[in-house]
Write a structure and sequence with these properties.
This protein has 6 helices and 3 strands; from the N terminus they run H-H-H-E-H-E-E-H-H. It has helices at about 1-20, 30-50, 65-95, 110-125, 155, 160-169, and strands at about 100-105, 130-135, 140-145. A 3-stranded antiparallel beta sheet has the order 1-3-2, with helices on one face. The longest helix has about 30 residues, at about 65-95. It is globular. It starts with a helix and ends with a helix.
Length: about 170
């Protein structure tokens, strides 16, 4: 199942990146066939690597309703937080007003997928960087501007844990 999922996601990404360059809808026949071959190869490589590591696709990730939630999360709260963080970082670059530091947050996420999604969401948001994941599933986050040394989790990552919990658990 992991092989098929990886191949499908690879093919959809390929179609998205090459749209508008052909005559069959938006792609040429050569592009479609080449994309299918490369996507199958990517799925096979991913499956082999992940199966050697003992990874299995979580049941929650296979639910299409959760994919819709993931898309809503990316387009809604994540995009809003990223835009807000970009403006904040631009302000801090111009003014030089920074107060950097590393804080520990405990998001209480139960799955590896959830904690990974949160760490990646934090790292992709300008001004923050996930430094380490603790054994107790806590995250150490470097922030460009700390208002206090023990901030609330909401101050560091907004409502990301709420959305990620809905997607992965």
């Amino acid at each position: 199942m992991l092989f098929a999922l990886a191949a499908l996601v690879s093919f959809l990404l390929y179609l998205l990146l090459t749209a508008g360059s052909g005559s069959i809808f938006y792609w040429s026949a050569e592009e479609l066939s080449l994309g299918a071959v490369f996507s199958l190869a990517a799925g096979l490589v991913s499956w082999r690597v992940l199966s050697k590591l003992g990874a299995k696709a979580p049941a929650a990730f296979m639910n299409p309703a959760r994919w819709v939630l993931f898309i809503v999360y990316i387009i809604g709260p994540f995009l809003f937080a990223m835009t807000k963080a970009n403006l904040d970082v631009a302000f801090r670059v111009i003014t030089g007003k920074i107060n950097p530091g590393i804080v520990k947050i405990k998001p209480k996420l139960k799955t590896d997928l959830g904690i990974t999604m949160l760490a990646n969401s934090i790292t992709l948001t300008p001004g923050t960087l996930s430094v380490e994941i603790g054994r107790d599933r806590s995250l150490y986050v470097h922030c460009i501007n700390l208002k206090n040394r023990k901030p609330e989790m909401r101050e560091v990552c907004g409502n990301f844990p709420y959305w990620i919990r809905r997607i992965t658990e």
